[in-house]
């Protein structure tokens, strides 16, 4: 979704719906009902703020204000990377995510648990975290508390929420996550982004999945197949 300023009196919201959003819109009867949204400033270059502008304070941000907004893009790995957040007036520090590596190297066909935590302690304890795996060919992710069905989909259980799949990325919402790597023919790397849904704090992990080793009989020697 993007805000497009056509003139001084008109603001147009340009939105691209996901497949699920289009399905709900087609049903009618108020099935499509936006209850939450987020704002970001991905396109803003704050280095252009100029406190030395000759025309005074009204013009410090004149270049920034003239930057065009990005068009809507349904791929969350390409936009909404710098989300805006509201802090309490008496909050003296910006939240950060802890208890996670910056780099993670795993074998093919193994599982790993990601347990984010936040500082100040207690923030993000209600709404949890959003985890985005930027290339779904590397692994499958489940929020702890969900159970995959036979088709590979996730059904919500107590404390868990379902997973939303895109063409090249996969996103899950929960308080901790189970990551199951897939078989890779060559060693390669991708990125995992984790964001606190209350704090807005983010953490990036570089995920490397090692290539499988094949035995003389065609058996997988690296990693153990995960059910």
Describe it.
With 227 residues, the chain is mostly beta strands. The chain has two domains: 2-65, no CATH class; 96-209, Immunoglobulins (Immunoglobulin-like, Sandwich). Helices cover 6% and strands 30% of the residues. The chain contains two helices and 15 strands. It has helices at residues 19-27, 62-65, and strands at residues 2-7, 10-14, 96-98, 103-106, 111-114, 117-119, 129-133, 139-143, 147-148, 154-155, 163-165, 170-174, 177-181, 188-196, 202-209. It has a six-stranded mixed β-sheet, with no helix packed on it. It has a three-stranded antiparallel β-sheet with strand order 5-13-8, with no helix packed on it. Strand 14 (188-196) and strand 15 form a beta hairpin. The longest helix has 9 residues, at 19-27. The protein is globular. The relative contact order is 0.17. Mean pLDDT is 80; it is low at 149-162.
């Amino acid at each position: 979704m993007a805000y497009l300023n056509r003139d001084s009196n008109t603001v147009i919201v340009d939105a691209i719906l996901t497949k699920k959003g289009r399905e709900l819109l087609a049903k009618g009867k108020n099935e499509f009902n936006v209850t939450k949204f987020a704002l970001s400033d991905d396109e803003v270059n704050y280095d252009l703020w100029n406190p030395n502008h000759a025309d005074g304070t009204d013009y410090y941000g004149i270049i920034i204000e003239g930057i065009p907004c990005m068009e809507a893009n349904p791929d969350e790995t390409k936009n909404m990377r710098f989300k805006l957040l509201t802090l309490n007036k008496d909050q003296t520090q910006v939240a950060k995510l802890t208890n996670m590596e910056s780099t993670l190297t795993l074998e093919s066909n193994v599982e790993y648990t990601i347990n984010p935590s936040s500082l100040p302690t207690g923030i993000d304890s209600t709404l949890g975290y959003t985890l985005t795996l930027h290339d779904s060919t590397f692994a499958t992710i489940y929020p702890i508390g969900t159970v995959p069905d036979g088709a590979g989909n996730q059904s919500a259980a107590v404390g868990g929420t379902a997973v939303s799949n895109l063409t090249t990325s996969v996103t899950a919402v929960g308080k901790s996550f189970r990551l199951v790597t897939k078989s890779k023919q060559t060693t390669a790397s991708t990125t995992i982004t984790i964001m606190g849904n209350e704090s807005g704090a983010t953490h990036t992990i570089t995920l490397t999945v090692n290539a499988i080793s094949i035995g003389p009989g065609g058996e997988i020697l690296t990693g153990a197949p995960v059910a």
